[in-house]
Amino acid sequence: MSDRERFVDLFRKYIKRDGADALLEWLCSPTQSDFFSAPASTRFHGSVRGGLCAHSLNVYDCLCDLMHNAKYFSELRDSNGNPYSEESIAIVSLLHDLCKVNFYVETTRNVKVNGVWESVPYFSINDQLPYGHGEKSVYIISGFMKLTRDEAFAIRYHMGFSTGGTDERGNIGAALEKFPLAYALVCADMGASYFKEGTPE
Questions:
Q1: Through-space distance between the first and last CA atoms of the chain, rounded to whole angstroms
Q2: Cβ atoms within 10 Å of 8's Cβ, excluding its own
Q3: What letter would DSSP give residue 129?
Q4: CA 183 to chain centroid
Q5: Helix (H) and strand (E) counts for the chain?
Q6: What are the C-alpha distances in Å from 35 to residues 22, 26, 80, 201?
Q7: Burial category of 181 from C-beta neighbours within 10 Å (exposed 0-12, middle 13-18, buried 19 and up)
Q8: What digits encode the pLDDT tens for the residues 12-64?
Q9: Looking at the chain, which runs of residues are DSSP E strands?
Q10: Is pLDDT above 50 for 201?
């Protein structure tokens, strides 16, 4: 099964709320979205064609492992005191990086290989919707379907303390404390990025 097929299968299996079908249709449209061909970064984890979808699946796997197998995480509850649903887990993990859809362009750059300059493929950023990172993903998803407060905060703060200026540090800490799904997603995102994917040689 390809990454695209697995992503679509998981999406259809777990994400059922109003607007989900339209969101998936947008993601699958080759004229509107490059989700399945986009990289996850320019030069770090997943900096290859299809890296964004692969990274999203890796985060899903890491988050499921945490939420189902780690005692602390499996006991977490949402802001209403309920266990996190399979739908919420799928939404925040599979869709947390929608901010990277239509965000990268493939170009070339010159690098020295064995003392000789060569033109090699390279991804650069061409942000047509400069609306931040996590907040941009929340904005895109919300155009199709409603998120719970826990889901919105998890996606918004999935980068943890690695983004945001000094003034925002208090907000990040408060969000991770108030919305445990956000903390779990940070852990899953970092686990996928650093241990499952890593930086290409």
A1: 26
A2: 17
A3: S
A4: 14
A5: 9, 2
A6: 15, 9, 33, 24
A7: buried
A8: 999 999 999 999 999 999 999 999 999 888 777 777 888 999 999 999 999 99
A9: 104-113, 116-125
A10: no
The string over 133-150, giving b where at least 16 C-beta atoms fall within 10 Å of a residue's C-beta and e elsewhere, is bbebbbbbbeebbebbeb
User: Considering the entire predicted model, what is its pTM?
Assistant: 0.90
SS3 assignment, position 105: strand
Summarised one tens digit per residue, pLDDT across range 113-163 is: 888 898 877 788 788 888 888 999 999 999 999 999 999 999 999 987 766
How many whole angstroms separate alpha carbon 124 and alpha carbon 108? 9
> What value, to the nearest 5°, has the Cα angle with vertex 183 and ends 151 and 135?
45
Banded model confidence at residue 166, pLDDT cuts 50, 70, 90: low
- Do residues 96 and 134 lie in contact, with contact meaning Cβ atoms separated by under 8 Å? yes
Residue for token pair 């993601």: 27
d(CA 34, CA 28): 8
Q: Where are the alpha helices (DSSP H) in 70-133?
A: 71-74, 86-95
Find out whether 104 and 126 touch, Cβ atoms under 8 Å. Answer: yes
DSSP 52: H
